[in-house]
Specification:
Oligomer: heterodimer
Number of helices of chain A: 14
Strand content of chain B: 15-25%
Structural class of chain B: alpha+beta
Helix content of chain B: 25-40%
Distance between the termini of chain B: 15 Å
Strand content of chain A: under 5%
Radius of gyration of chain B: 24 Å
Number of helices of chain B: 17
Largest interface: A-B, 57 and 69 residues
Order of helices and strands of chain A: HHHHHHHHHHHHHH
Chain lengths: 320, 533
């Protein structure tokens, strides 16, 4: 196992290198200039070419692309992610600051959505074609089909504007120490929308895996041994749904760390997702490179963890 | 709170514009003048479209950054609501008869929030940074004529000879050549806010942006009516009152800037979750129907216009520009789409004191437009690309349809803002485009960067060049007015940029907020704001 892990980690070094080269190229090819980014167009229009050139030189954007890339790589290897091209603050700090808010949102909603989706999926499968199954199916399709921006704005309209139960956005009430209760009030809306978005596909996933499992010979055997339905489902069928279950979680992990762009943006939640979209809009190349590197590492690590979990959950899988 | 009204608006604004829920542009704000007796204290929350991009005072990228500085610092002079100069840190000022030097006498009661007196050294340091682009300064132009600037920039001297500290409370600026817009530009959007020399002094200009003072603004020393009590990136900035403010202790305890999406902010305003929020022109009429908020509009002195690529032969004929202006039904657009927040306009200056009454108004007249196009030999088979960005999306179909009626084929091309900057401003790759929010930053001379040769409009007229040059050095106000009157007439005739309309700013507030003064240059006297309980 440890040889496998070491091997995978070594392979990921050239993978990461490739990802950063490609990302760097694409970012540099996009139209836009960080020297003028975020300036009002009417202000940008007044800037003389000399001023723009000076700004580009100060931001180190005048060097040839390979030189810029090697300089960036050299700094990253030494642990220096550099400074934002827009607000000039250190990038590493900004990314680290965003991880906690993102995890608050994504981890809680991942756990909640699993807690909801697994029972629903199992019930749907063992009561296939029942009214309950149809109801869950319709609901989960509805949850999948409603775009999150629409659900978010609809929720703000209903719960903030109409009922005035919850704040419209933000992570806490600014300028007032509201404590944990204040934080939870702010968390409820974005977290619920994200949970809703995930429950749909998760339920469908659990349902189809469960349907496959209950048709297996060993389930028939268990039933013919005279075991109770509860023991058959939970003891025999459920355990074999574990592998696809790990896949779901494994696939969700990058999103857990990478944040959710639309929901974070609408609710002004200061997570990685809103940081990413901000960096794109601002043409903050160095911030984007930092974020790309971090998300590449997260994806590689989540895949590795998923593979290891497979081997633990299913002894038939051998890692080599 | 009027809930029924709230629903009607909100459905349209939240759901109807949901698709356009792009990252909001910086929000603007205004202040109605209300005089009534209130108790001191309280807090107001003001929705902003983004977190300040920088806390660097010589890089005021937008209104938001300027407001942060007005809350926490001061500059030499400001404009009042009618565009007249009023004191800020400088109590009085004199211009030498030859127009070559300006002397400012500072308010002697001004102290930094740590108790250190504000002196001429602070002004000298700040203006040195502002004159030097290496500090990140966005507007070095006002200081470009200072004596000894070149020697300072190339490292020959450590300070700028033309910035003289006469005594602790007197500072003099000496010019190498007359620069008439100087004081106006200190009061307009270009004017720098003061930095404390005893804190940032010794910071090399190219280190200012990454200095601790700029990157960690919480609790830093300032001299405005408020200080920054806390700041959470992309969430909020909280300002706490500074009782030692030299114009008198502020009435509010706290001002909160809260980062919100525009659609969400409008909803939050209706529930009273926030107190202030700018109102986009397209929602101005709807929001006015709300009883739970107070909507105010104020002159912003800026105009929107169409740019022609004047370097292309087929688009450089003034008759074509005039035809396009005659073809557009500006009155209907400003009344119906912009809800009356703007009105058709034809001069490049909006402020009354600069405007020339003889400017020709191009009436909506499709027949005349068609005749002008024919006269100019326009090729009616030609299709012209019009590159625009987000905020003009409402205008694109109107423009296309208006021009189609006179046989002018226009193909609107929507670009993301930064891509538009790249195409139109950097690469000059366009046939027709637009310019939003133009006008003077402080002084009519500002538009030289628009209409002289070699600028982005690609317009080049020797007469206009000479007039702008004359206006820059002419110190007699009456003579200057004549010069800019003439410039207006030439631009009005050639229409290298077709001025469409001026646009006012609208702001919505909860009724409890009692702000007291405003002007078109984002200047707000925050210490006089108050709230009723």
């Amino acid at each position: 196992m440890s040889a496998f892990i070491l091997n995978r980690l070594l392979i990921s070094i050239p993978v990461l290198f490739g990802i950063t080269v490609v990302t760097f190229l694409f970012i540099s090819l996009a139209p836009g200039d960080p020297a003028m980014a975020m300036l009002d167009p009417s202000v940008a229009m007044r800037m003389s070419p000399e001023e723009v050139a000076l700004r580009r030189e100060r931001l180190g954007l005048d060097d040839p692309l390979p030189v810029q890339y090697v300089r960036w790589l050299g700094n990253v290897v030494r642990g220096d992610f550099g400074y934002s091209l827009i607000d000039r603050a250190p990038i590493a700090n900004q990314i680290v600051e965003r991880i906690r808010p993102t995890l608050e949102l994504t981890l809680v909603s991942l756990v909640l959505s699993l807690l909801i989706a697994v029972p629903l999926g199992v019930i749907s499968a063992i009561r296939q074609y029942s009214l309950l199954d149809y109801t869950f199916t319709v609901l989960s399709f509805a949850a999948v089909s409603i775009p999150s921006f629409f659900a978010s704005l609809g929720a703000i309209y209903l719960f903030s504007l109409r009922l005035e139960w919850l704040p419209t956005s933000g992570r806490s009430t600014a300028g007032a120490d509201g404590g944990i209760l204040d934080f939870l009030k702010h968390l409820i809306l974005p977290m619920s929308i994200l949970t809703l978005e995930r429950v749909g596909p998760f339920t469908r996933y659990v349902r189809s895996s469960m349907l496959e499992a209950v048709k297996q010979d060993y389930v028939v055997t268990a039933r013919s041994k005279g075991l109770s339905e509860r023991a058959v489902v939970l003891g025999h069928a459920m355990r074999n749904v574990l592998t696809p279950f790990i896949t779901i979680i494994g696939l969700s992990l990058p999103g857990v760390f990478g944040g959710v762009v639309i929901i974070e943006t609408i609710f002004s939640w200061p997570g990685i997702g809103s940081l990413t979209i901000k960096a794109v809009n601002q043409r903050d190349y160095s911030m984007l490179m930092g974020l790309a590197l971090v998300s590449a590492i997260v994806i590689i690590l989540s895949n590795l963890i998923t593979d290891i979990c497979y081997a633990i959950a299913d002894p038939r899988i051998r890692l080599s | 709170m009027d809930h029924v009204g709230g629903f009607r608006f909100s459905r349209r604004s939240l759901i109807g514009t949901a698709g356009a829920a792009a990252l909001a542009a910086p929000l603007g704000i205004s202040i109605p003048r209300v005089a009534s007796a209130q108790t001191a204290g309280g807090s107001i929350t003001w929705a902003q479209g983004r977190f300040p991009l920088t806390f660097n005072p010589v890089r005021p990228m937008g209104s938001l950054e300027r407001w942060v500085w007005q809350l926490t610092s001061a500059r030499l002079v400001n404009f009042d609501t009618s565009g007249q100069l009023i004191p800020d840190l400088a109590e009085s000022w004199e211009t030498a008869p030859d127009g070559l030097s300006y002397t400012f006498n500072l308010n002697q009661s001004a102290n930094w929030s740590d108790g250190t007196p504000v002196t001429a050294a602070d002004v000298a340091l700040t203006c040195t940074y502002a004159a030097d682009s290496r500090s990140g300064s966005l507007y070095p132009e006002p200081f470009a004529s200072l004596k000894g600037l070149a020697a300072y920039l190339d490292g020959t001297t450590a300070t700028i000879e033309g910035i003289e500290v006469v005594d602790d409370h007197t500072v003099r600026f000496v010019m190498a050549e007359p620069f008439a817009p100087f004081i106006n530009s200190l009061a307009g959007n270009q004017g720098p806010y003061m930095l404390p020399a005893h804190i940032v002094g010794g910071t090399a200009p190219d280190q200012l942006e990454t200095s601790d003072y700029n990157l960690n603004p919480v609790g830093r020393v300032g001299m405005g009516p408020f200080t920054i009590a806390s700041a959470e990136k992309d969430q909020n900035v909280v300002f706490a009152r500074n009782d030692g403010y030299f114009k008198g202790a502020p009435l509010l305890d706290q001002v909160v800037f809260r980062v919100m999406q525009r659609e969400v902010a409008l909803a939050a305003l209706l529930t009273g979750e926030i107190d202030i929020c700018s109102i986009p022109g397209t929602q101005y009429a709807d929001m006015q129907k709300e009883d739970s908020i107070v909507i105010t509009s104020y002159a912003w002195n800026l105009w929107d216009g169409l740019i022609f690529n004047n370097s292309l032969d087929y688009l450089s004929d003034p008759r074509i520009h005039q035809a396009v202006l005659h073809a557009i039904d500006r009155k209907t657009y400003t009344e119906q789409i912009l809800g009356g927040l703007g009105a058709p306009w034809d001069s490049i200056y909006v402020q009354e004191q600069f405007t020339n009454a003889d400017v020709v108004h191009y009436e909506y007249d499709p027949a005349k437009a068609q005749a002008l196009l024919t006269e100019a030999g326009w090729d009616f088979d030609r299709e012209v690309e019009w590159k625009y960005y987000g905020s003009f999306a409402d205008f694109a179909p109107v423009l296309q349809e208006n021009l189609a009626k006179v046989g002018f084929k226009l193909k609107p091309v929507a670009l993301e803002t930064e891509a538009w900057v790249d195409a139109v401003l950097t690469n000059l790759d366009f046939e027709m485009s637009l310019t939003g929010g133009n006008g003077v930053l402080a002084d009519p001379a500002d538009l030289a960067s628009f209409f002289t040769c070699g600028t982005n409009t690609l317009y080049c007229n020797d007469e206009v060049n000479q007039l702008f040059e004359a206006g820059r050095i002419e110190t007699d106000p009456a003579e200057r007015k004549k010069i800019y009157d003439q410039i207006q007439l030439i631009i009005n005739r050639d229409a290298p940029v077709a001025v469409l309309w001026y646009l006012n700013q609208a702001v919505g507030m909860t009724p409890r907020v009692k702000p007291t003064a405003y002007n078109a240059f984002d200047y707000l006297s925050f210490h006089t704001w108050e709230v009723t309980s």
